[in-house]
Amino acid sequence: MSDPAIPEPVANVKRALTALGAEDTVTVFDSKVPTAAAAAVALGCDVAAITNSLVFDVDGAPLLILASGAAKVDTALVAATLGSGKIRRASPAFVLQHTGQEVGGVAPVGHPEKIKTLLDESLKTHELLWAGAGDHNSMFSITYKELQKITGAEEMPVR
């Protein structure tokens, strides 16, 4: 039975975390934290420790890049590293379709289908990371090593 006070996308993230062997560390805030800067202020941490879950469109297929909140993804670098075509920022409808979550609240897990995922190597320098948990009011904490494990993400420089 699900808690009606918890939005379904957040409940999906909580279920995914525990199913993947991670601790459910989801924190729900009273106000929205839709940006890395807002999340860092609410959590009292460095913006670079916020893990943005950014969805891109690569020839109609989703690509999830888990990037530091302090970084701007270099899509040309990522495309060259992957040997793929042009990587475009996905539309909000594309993001919702492939993740079940809205832009600004996308989590690294809890999606309807597995998405190819890349992990920004610069996040390694932080003892604890914070990532979106499915909506604009929720985040969860995790270590870099555990995030890589539960997402199966390929580690690479993305900037």
Notes on the protein architecture:
- The protein has 159 residues and is of the alpha/beta class.
- The protein is built from five helices and eight strands, in the order αβαββαβαβββαβ.
- It has helices spanning 8-19, 36-43, 75-82, 92-99, 144-151; strands spanning 27-28, 50-58, 61-68, 88-89, 116-120, 129-132, 138-142, 154-156.
- Strands 1, 2, 3, 4, 5, 6, 7 and 8 form an eight-stranded mixed sheet that branches.
- The termini are far apart.
- The model has no long low-confidence stretch (mean pLDDT 94).
Separation of the first and last Cα atoms = 42 Å
- SSE order, as H and E? HEHEEHEHEEEHE
The largest sheet, given as strand count, sense and whether it forms a barrel, is: 8 strands, mixed
Q: What is the gyration radius calculated from CA atoms?
A: 14 Å
Helical residues, percent: 25-40%
Number of strands: 8
Return the average pLDDT rounded to an integer: 94
How much of the residues is beta strand, in percent?
15-25%
Counting H and I runs of at least 4 residues, what is the number of helices?
Answer: 5
Unreliably modeled segments: none
Going by helix content, strand content and strand pairing, the class is alpha/beta
Apparent shape: globular
